Amino acid sequence: MCWRGVYVSQGARFVAEVLRTNPQLSLEVFRQRLPFKDQAQLDRIGDALRKAGLR
What we know:
Number of domains: 1
Number of helices: 3
Distance between the termini: 27 Å
Shape: flat
Mean pLDDT: 86
């Protein structure tokens, strides 16, 4: 079993649910609303959200 695939599919379900409640959410909005001091951490989270389907 590929755990990465499981996490991505769970992430995709999460993103789909979030977009149902807030269809205007995007990676850019996410980055603006949740500033991180550590740019690398923000990049990792952004990459995970992008893989899960957030645009």
